[in-house]
């Protein structure tokens, strides 16, 4: 006897938390083997999933009952929602015999893999058995064993019995014209689906025609399922009006088209301008293993509406398919999984990381690849399974689940939840569900059902290796609508701490905007209201009068509407009056634990509320001030005389002919060697100037906050030269500009140029030793022809002293000393006038002060 336990476990962890429930509320469906008849063969419980009315269908294609005469028949399990003990194996009528013989056909159901694929609508359940062995005699003593079949049944009154069961098998299609050898690996029933418009049964057989694959589109007829024109009676299906895709028109006879597995994945959706649903089918090994996905009419009368090709060899493009309207534009979109895609990024190669391509349907019914999600884990196989979850958070857009079941060979598995929006899929996962002990968690996914009847759609995830199906419940989403009201449109500047406490009142009202959420006494809501949240603590401008702080916390029971009033005040002497004050409210919803109740969760889109309030500025109807600043300057003196001028005074006049200018500043950049002394102004406005921390050469004067419209200010800046030697230019240049914080305000700039006048007075004093040199020149002829005057052992010393008696330094002074020489005709070079006396050398009485302070001797 097989039992199911619905238990709470810590095998699985949930990362992030919107809006599926955390692990303590997950439910696990497992097969528990009978003690008397334990099974040694895995049942593959969870291989396929489907939803039928208020039940979850679970396929176990290798399941074997110890009391069953058929070995490993496979099974389908049906678990009623909101019931811990009503999971039963589904029994299809006329399915009890191990071997069924009808005419020349013979069915062998051992290892048929019943439940390998599942589909259901309100009235029908269809289960594929792709390895059902259907032996056929062609009438010439040749038998063919055709694998594959499917069972469809009409919903009955019994939980475990499906009425009016029919067996589908390709061997009865076109009985007299079949080539059975081509059906030898049919795997008919590998994938099954039910379309709504028109109502048809869709069955794939990827092994047909040497694994090129085939698709069958069969109408759902009346429920007596008897057609007397067919030579075989029930339970076999009357195969008339059957659409059957055998050899597609664009298939060549090339042997490389074999083994392409047409029909590996199957889905239905609307991709043209009629009301009928089209068939979406994958061919993962087509085109040299790049794969393709094709979209065809429901009756297969036209081969293909369009084809989408894969891009990478061996990526298994189309291993999973999901049809969903992501952006709520009324057109079906398509997700295609390629779990064996290799990601090459940043020098890394992630083999089998996986990839999902997202195609959006335009109003002209074209499919455009707009988004791609690539795996980030080696061997993870992102996109192995895809699921349309429906609108799990009730924001008006459908959401998607993508499995990554084989990280670290399956020891780590993840399910990524993506939210839809009007702009498409939000590529950052809103939630990551992680399994550590469920190997291969995410083999199959199933959404679009409400297990606990709380109005929110839930998710089923299977782990075939551990034969476990986890039912993950959605949490009710609480959406908060916040409204703020204040006693005046803007915050008055005079509403300070010493003014009446009624000068500015803020009212915060909270509304719960969700009809599906029924609040209880277990739920409590709290919020933190922060004033001027953009500013740091020292620069904050607005405070609660009650606490003299900028943060307020409130805790209260959840109700449909609640309001709170707060009295606020402005800080004295606020500098920033132009930028608005940002108010931020952070909500937290808490609930007391209850194992029988799924706790609600806040919508992250409105868990934080932002609001801005302007400070009173008197800027007219648009609350935007545009000043018009003008700058004029004068100087004293007109010329800087080095050593004579003691101070330099700059006169600055600023006029505002526009609207109020806020945080108006005048900055003066001083030249090198000049220091700021003081400032004064004749204006009634309190003006103060100071040097900036990063540079004492920049002086900033605050002209008012605000500098009123039609206002004028005149100020004087007193400076002095403190390091003349550092001045390299010929003039002193002061750069002056005026700015304000108003957006779009003009910024007038000007320069003051003061020439530098130098007034040195140089005096040169010299002394010679000896003062005179005497020689006998009575014989004039001898003097002239002797070439020089003969004065042996003569020492001549000249001492020169240079003095600057002026008020300023001399920039560059040059002294030239000419030593007498006598040029004679007939000689190329001059000779010394004094024979025996060498060219003089220089002896300095003090070291040079500068590198360019040096002396040279020139011959004359």
Automatic annotation (TrEMBL):
One of its GO terms (biological process) is cell-cell adhesion. SUPFAM superfamilies: Integrin alpha N-terminal domain, Integrin domains. FG-GAP repeats lie at residues 31-88, 304-368. Residues 619-753 form the Integrin alpha second immunoglobulin-like domain. It is a single-pass type I membrane protein. One of its GO terms (molecular function) is integrin binding. Keywords: Cell adhesion, Glycoprotein, Integrin, Membrane, Receptor, Repeat, Signal, Transmembrane, Transmembrane helix. It is found in: Membrane. It comes from the Eukaryota. Pfam families: FG-GAP, Integrin_A_Ig_1, Integrin_A_Ig_2. GO terms for cellular component: external side of plasma membrane; integrin complex. Residues 474-618 form the Integrin alpha first immunoglubulin-like domain. InterPro entries: FG-GAP, Int_alpha_beta-p, Integrin_alpha, Integrin_alpha_Ig-like_1, Integrin_alpha_Ig-like_2, Integrin_alpha_N, Integrin_dom_sf. PROSITE patterns: FG_GAP. The keyword Glycoprotein applies. Residues 1-17 form the signal peptide. Belongs to the integrin alpha chain family. This is Integrin alpha-2 domain-containing protein. The lineage of its organism: Eukaryota, Metazoa, Spiralia, Gnathifera, Rotifera.
């Amino acid at each position: 006897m097989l039992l199911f336990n619905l238990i709470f476990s810590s095998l699985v962890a949930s990362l992030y938390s919107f809006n599926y429930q955390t692990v303590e509320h997950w439910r696990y469906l497992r097969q528990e083997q009978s003690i008397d008849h334990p099974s040694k063969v895995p049942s593959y419980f969870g291989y396929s999933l489907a939803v039928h009315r208020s039940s979850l269908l679970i396929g176990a294609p290798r399941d074997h009952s110890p009391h069953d005469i058929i070995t490993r028949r496979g099974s389908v399990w049906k678990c009623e929602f909101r019931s811990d003990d009503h999971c039963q194996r589904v029994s299809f009528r006329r399915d009890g015999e191990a071997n069924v013989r009808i005419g020349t056909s013979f069915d062998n159901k051992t290892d048929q893999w019943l439940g390998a694929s599942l589909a259901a609508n309100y009235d029908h359940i269809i289960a594929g058995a792709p390895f059902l062995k259907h032996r056929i005699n062609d009438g010439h003593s040749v038998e063919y064993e055709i694998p594959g079949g499917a069972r469809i049944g009409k919903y009955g009154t019994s939980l475990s019995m499906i009425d009016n069961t029919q067996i589908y098998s390709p061997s009865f299609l076109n009985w007299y014209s079949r080539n059975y050898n081509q059906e030898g690996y049919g795997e008919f029933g590998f994938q099954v689906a039910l379309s709504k418009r028109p109502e048809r049964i869709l069955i794939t057989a990827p092994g047909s025609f040497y694994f090129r694959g085939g698709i069958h589109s069969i109408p759902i007829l009346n429920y007596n399922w008897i057609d007397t024109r067919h030579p075989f009676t029930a339970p076999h299906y009357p195969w008339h009006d059957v659409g059957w895709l055998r050899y597609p028109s664009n298939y060549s006879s090339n042997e490389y088209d074999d083994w392409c597995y047409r029909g590996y994945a199957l889905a239905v959706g609307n991709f043209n301008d009629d009301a009928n649903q089209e068939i979406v089918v994958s061919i993962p090994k087509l085109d040299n293993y790049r794969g393709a996905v094709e979209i065809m009419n429901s009756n297969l009368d036209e081969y293909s509406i369009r084809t989408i090709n894969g891009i990478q060899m061996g990526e298994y493009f189309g291993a999973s398919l999901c049809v969903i309207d992501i952006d709520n534009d009324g057109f079906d979109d398509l997700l295609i999984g390629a779990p064996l895609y290799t990601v090459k990024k940043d020098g890394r190669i992630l083999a089998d990381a996986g990839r999902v391509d997202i195609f959006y349907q335009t109003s002209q019914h074209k499919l455009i690849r707009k988004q791609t999600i690539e795996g980030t884990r080696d061997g993870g196989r992102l996109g192995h399974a895809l699921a349309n979850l429906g609108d799990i958070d009730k924001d008006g857009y459908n959401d998607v689940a993508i499995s990554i079941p084989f990280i670290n060979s399956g020891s780590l598995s993840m399910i990524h939840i993506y939210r839809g929006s009007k702009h498409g899929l939000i590529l950052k996962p809103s939630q990551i569900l992680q399994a550590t002990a469920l190997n291969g968690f995410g083999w199959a996914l199933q959404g679009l059902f409400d297990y606990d009847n709380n109005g929110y759609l839930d998710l089923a995830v299977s782990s075939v290796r551990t034969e476990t199906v986890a039912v993950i419940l959605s949490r009710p989403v609480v959406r908060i609508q916040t409204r703020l009201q204040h006693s005046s449109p803007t915050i008055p500047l005079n509403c300070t701490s010493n003014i009446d406490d009624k000068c500015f009142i803020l009212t915060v009202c909270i509304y719960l905007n969700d009809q599906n959420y029924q609040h209880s006494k277990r739920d409590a809501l709290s919020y933190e209201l922060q004033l001027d949240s953009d500013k740091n603590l020292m620069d904050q401008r607005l405070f609660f009068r009650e606490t003299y702080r900028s943060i307020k916390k409130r805790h209260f029971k959840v109700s449909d509407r609640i309001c709170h009033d707060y009295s606020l005040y402005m800080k004295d002497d606020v500098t920033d009056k132009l930028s608005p004050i940002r108010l931020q409210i952070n909500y937290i919803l808490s609930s007391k634990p209850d194992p029988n109740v799924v706790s609600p969760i806040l919508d992250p889109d409105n868990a934080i509320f932002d609001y801005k309030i302007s400070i009173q500025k008197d800027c007219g109807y648009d609350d935007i001030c545009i000043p018009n600043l003008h700058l004029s300057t004068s100087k004293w003196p007109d010329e800087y005389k080095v050593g004579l001028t003691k101070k330099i005074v700059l006169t600055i006049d600023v006029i505002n002919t526009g609207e109020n200018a806020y945080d108006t500043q005048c900055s003066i950049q001083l030249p090198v060697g000049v220091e700021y002394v003081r400032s004064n102004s004749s204006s009634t406005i309190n003006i103060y100037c100071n040097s900036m921390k990063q540079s004492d050469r920049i002086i900033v004067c605050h002209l008012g906050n605000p500098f009123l419209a039609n206002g004028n200010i005149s100020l004087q800046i007193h400076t002095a030269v403190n390091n003349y030697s550092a001045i390299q230019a010929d003039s002193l240049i002061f750069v002056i500009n005026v700015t304000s914080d108003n957006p779009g305000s003009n910024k007038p700039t000007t320069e003051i140029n003061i020439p530098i006048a130098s007034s040195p007075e140089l005096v040169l004093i010299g002394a010679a030793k000896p003062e005179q040199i005497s020689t006998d020149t009575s014989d004039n002829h001898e003097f002239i022809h002797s070439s020089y005057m003969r004065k042996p052992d003569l020492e001549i010393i000249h001492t020169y002293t240079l003095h600057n008696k002026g008020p300023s330094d001399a920039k560059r002074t040059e002294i030239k000393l000419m030593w007498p020489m006598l040029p004679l005709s007939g000689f190329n070079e001059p000779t010394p006038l004094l024979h025996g006396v060498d060219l003089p050398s220089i002896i300095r009485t003090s070291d040079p002060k500068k590198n360019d302070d040096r002396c040279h001797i020139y011959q004359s």
